[in-house]
Amino acid sequence: MKKEKLISVFTLAALFLICNVSKAQLLKGIINADSIPILQIAYTPDGDVINTTYHKLQPDKDGKFSFNTDLIDQTCDVGVYVGEEIFGAHLEKGKTTNIYLEKKSGNENFEIRFGGDNVELSKVYNAYTQAFDIFKYFSIDPALSKSFQEYRDILEKEYTALNKKLATIKDDQWQAYYIKLSEGMYKWTQIRLIMDECFEENIPLAESPEYLELINAIDPNDEASLRTNLSVAWLGGKVKQSMDGNDDDNTPYFVECMELVENQITNPKVRTSLIRYIPYLYFTMGAGKGDVNVFWNRFKIFAKDYPELISDYESNVKSFVEIKKGDDVPYNPVLTKTDGTTCKLSDLSGYLVYIDIWATWCVPCVKEIPHLEKVAEHFKGNDKIKIISISVDENRDAWLKKLAKDQPEWEQYILTPEEEEKFMKAWNIGGIPRFIVLDKDGKVFSADAPRPSNEELIGTLESQL
Hints:
alpha+beta, five-stranded mixed β-sheet, four-stranded mixed β-sheet, 15 strands, 44% helix
């Protein structure tokens, strides 16, 4: 054990020496593991979490990797994903942050060490990232889920420990920044827990005094609110229309969202972010209820100063306008089974087919799985309907690991990267989860069907059998 530790220390020292004498990179690292998981950097160029991008890191044979990009600002905090774990690091133009990742002794989890530039701030942001890791307050495995009070207790414990860490920051300006960021993320995590609890207990959020108090205390124009999801939370809390309350038309909800932004958001960064967010939310969750042209005509006025954004979403509008009930499928993908054999989607014709488009890394997708299990159980033994899940995971092993753990009783498929690109483009799928229904003739019944958590789904499917 001592010899292994000594090797690790010398390897880390060598990395830092190499980083200091070679061409500057924003981040350099080494991962020490027999089996290297997928490594990714979550990078938000302008501080807008809606605009987060992910960069896959490819270690060489010695486990070395690096990351470099043109930062908009002088500094940037990033998330470092190591398989299912997340760490944080602080990057700065012209400087190099060094990280070393290795398995904890007798544990499957990794630990991180920092070197090079900005070690103190990287340690702080790593503590912040881990304190508010969503998987501390939600489990993809229902059997491992905790009570909401237990999650609240964890949050209080993590926040208290984080505040002690923040008190050690020597630079007053950085200390004030991270304190404000932490306060925002603490409030957002509280809000998210309340939303989950109300959803589980079927309580309208408007009837939760705690939720309303938190929403009313948000300054949506503060950039710290933008960086911690609070601006989005404010918008969702202030709109009076319900996205779930209008069975036939969600347009009033989104029109009111646009009006709130127009009338109350003065910070240009926040305004831009919410103008991006509204069509994303519409096409991911709200479309299919109402006339998309009504939404789109209003949105083009709302986003008139953002022609590139209007152009980006025109294909989505085309999808909802052109892919109608009774149409041929816009693309018939090759589906790969768990054993590696393949079939075409059209091979499933002759059944009413309910399709779940998902990925293991997509939290909203995973949250729908327990509901999908109930739908599958309801139709078990019915030879007129098939329920299938199609994964868009790039990591086939992560997909197989999740299936081995869950043991789903409905059919499971995955798309190759090439098939995924063609499928997502043809169906104009901009976000997941997405649910599609095909009729027994293999034609489109719904290009944007209700989610499994929607109580109307089973009745909708039964009416077509």
